[in-house]
Amino acid sequence: MYFVEVILPLSLAKTFTYSISEAESHYLKIGMRVAVPFGKSKIYTALAIEIHQNKPALYEAKEIQQILDERPIVTKIQISHWQWIASYYMCAIGDVYRGAMPSALLLESETLISQKTDSFVDTSLLSDDEFLVYEALQQQSSLKVQDIIAILNKKNIFPVIQQLIDKNILVLQEEIQETYKPKLIRYVKLNSRYDSNQGLTDLLETLKNANKQKEIVMRYFQLSAAENSKARFENRITMPITVKKLVDETNSSAAIIKALIEKEIFEEYFLQQDRVNFTGKISEFELLLSAEQKKALVAIKNVFSQKEVCLLHGVTSSGKTEIYIKLIEEYLENGKQILYLLPEIALTTQLVGRLRNYFGNKVAVFHSKYNNNERIEVWNQVLQKSEKAQIVIGARSALFLPFDNLGFIIVDEEHEQTFKQADPAPRYHARDAAIVLAHSFKAKVLLGSATPSIETYFNAKTGKFGLVEITKRYGNVLMPNIELVDLKEKYFRKKMTGHFSDILIEEITAALSMGEQVILFQNRRGYSPIIECITCGHVPHCQQCDVSLTYHKHKNQLRCHYCGYTMAKPTHCQACSSVDLTTKGFGTEQIEQELCFLFPNSKIGRMDQDTTRGKFGFEKIIDSFKNREIEILVGTQMLAKGLDFDNVSLVGVMNADNMLYHPDFRAFERTYQMLTQVAGRAGRSEKQGKVIIQTYNPDHNTIQQVTTNNYEAMFDEQLYDRKIYKYPPYYKIIKVTLKQRDFEKLKTGSMWLYQVMSQNLNMPVLGPEEPIISRIRNEYIRVIVIKIPLSVSIGNTKITIQKMLNSFEAVSQFRSIKTTLNIDFY
Length: 826
Ligand code: ADP
Ligand code: ZN
Ligand code: ZN
Hints:
Blueprint: E1 2-7, E2 16-20, H1 22-27, E3 33-38, E4 42-52, E5 66-67, H2 76-88, H3 93-100, E6 112-115, H4 128-139, E7 142-144, H5 145-152, H6 158-166, E8 170-172, H7 173-177, E9 184-190, H8 197-206, H9 211-233, H10 243-250, H11 254-262, E10 266-272, H12 291-306, E11 309-314, H13 320-333, E12 337-341, H14 348-359, E13 363-366, H15 372-383, E14 391-394, E15 406-412, H16 430-441, E16 444-449, H17 454-461, E17 466-470, E18 481-486, H18 487-492, E19 496-497, E20 500-501, H19 502-513, E21 517-521, E22 530-533, E23 550-552, E24 557-559, E25 566-568, E26 581-584, H20 588-598, E27 604-607, H21 617-626, E28 632-635, E29 648-653, H22 657-660, H23 667-679, E30 690-695, H24 701-707, H25 711-724, E31 731-740, H26 743-760, E32 765-769, E33 775-776, E34 779-789, H27 794-810, E35 818-823
Parallel strand pairs: 11-16, 11-17, 12-14, 12-15, 13-14, 15-16, 18-30, 21-28, 21-29, 27-28, 29-30
Antiparallel strand pairs: 1-2, 1-4, 3-4, 3-5, 6-7, 6-8, 9-10, 19-20, 22-26, 23-24, 24-25, 31-34, 31-35, 32-34, 33-34
The structure holds adenosine-5'-diphosphate (ADP) and zinc ion (2 copies).
One zinc ion is lined by residues 542, 544-545, 560, 562-563, 565.
């Protein structure tokens, strides 16, 4: 009797045993996928993690349906890393498996499959089975796996579906729902038959009587040559020639280019912007580090000879990226794989460009906005140790790729909270999980930040991590000069126009007159957060959530930022019918509008969640700002994330206070990080930048620490508070969230759990508390926080917690209460 132990892509903590034949037991290897029946009639893609001969004691093992892979597609190191994540973050191994794999590798019986819109299908290239599926989809818009089993009259259909996905004919359901369209750019290149000298002569002969066309072709040659050398000089990726550029440069029309394409002189092709293949030459200019950078590089290497993790604490624009590049170079030479983690997908495009200059096509990108085919492609490249993915840049999910020979992980902007996954499980922290992953490869980890998290800096100060610091900006650029504006005083003296102080207006005017750009930061989107009735004080709330609705003027709507609920802006109060409604607070949209009034001749842009939807929304705004098509950019914290603009001389913070008073033990740390990072966008070239921070609390310690660029003072103060109030790094925090539609049930249940926990755990347990937003999508919420002192075993505590949760779930009246655990919650 032979069995395979598998992980199912479901929220199940256990693994399951299926029976296999002896032949299958020889063929099947750990890390291959198998299709297995589960429940009454469902089929899932499971992952083999052990082949054994132990009959399960509690149930009759079902047979697997089929083996899906010819060789393992998941490595043993991955499996044990996933098991670590499941155990550390207290979630089901099935959750980790499902979160880690590109979903096209996880077909299941319920998956809806349809034909890709506007795909061209050459039916003569399809196998009989593939054709049958294709034909069925001409009648029906989508099919379930079950339907396809019926159509083909056989069970082993996953390979057929996979083939059709690979051939770009089918898509899975979730892709159809994706609203974004990849930005495609139209390029032309010379038909390869004209590549030779003879070809060139022929070409000129062909164009003898077509002057305009000849001119375009000649211009094409010039542009290609110029593009190549310029790219090398400017240290950036070489792009092929776009149709747009050619039309602009030659004052011609798209029609003439089209004629050239029809004549087969040019070939046109389309590329998705961030998947453009690097066609230029790798930069010939050697990257020369400054003395400061060299010193840091040596120091990091020293650390790595003794420790696995090093923090690079370098002020904004100190040239950390160039140090990463030098290190990457060395690991590349030793044939190692390198993982470069970024907090935000949107930052990848900028970075890919920079890295490809040095490493050409060895740079791959992996993130959740890629479609299935793209993700599978990178997955396979990493698995096969292909050179094309020797350096992988990605957001946190890139951590789950099948590395085999990982040598080096960079976690850039390590303080960013987006590295922690909030929902769904696994609620892992990519920085911490990266350190664990590196350990199993004996790889090194470099954490980089201008404003390290308190935890990381603590680890560096106490010797767990190495610490390397750079206190100067690259190229003698000065740190920005930060000036505080006291809003209380300005309002009192009537020196405000809308939300702009006289000083801010002066500075903006001065910057614009010098042809410099301005960034304005307001950490709230929308027009103004709330609408209030002047007569009775009523504020419209979301019907499903315990939050006031945000006013979006542009669409004349009230919108819930938690569940997406929208309603038209009311003309009168819903409570007293009064028509005297006023707005309170302000968001990016209102700032944008005030700007249009204050600076009617300037080009103004806005960057927030509302304007950056879609795959390339963010890049488009960044591009137009870089190209100076936008002079003043208003935005939320998206602006704070490691962007490099060279012409921004002024940064204005509209209001520093709303972050400061968040009821969260990290509020001061976050305010410091956010303000320092936004300020860091100012003056990244020769001229010293200026930052104006408007605040009601100019004397607040945190604001002062930002102004004087005193990270150490911020750290010391916060660390002291964390010790007194029992927070990380001195205590590990576990947040238990309970949700239920029935308010009374939730109250009883959360009190029950709280009491059991506080009686049985010999440590602080807080709660059950109503969070500030105590209802979302009609579910009430309660929170219990457990604080584990460093002296206590975390492993044992988690076992106790799990037992208590099990007994909680065993109480029938509590069974409908959903509980989630968030370890090290951010
Ligand atoms: P950080 O990541 O520390 O904020 P960057 O790596 O973005 O800083 O560097 C800031 C600016 O200085 C960038 O425009 C970068 O190109 C430039 N720079 C840094 N180091 C060098 C170097 N050694 N040679 C040329 N340019 C550099
Ligand atoms: Zn009213
Ligand atoms: Zn809502």
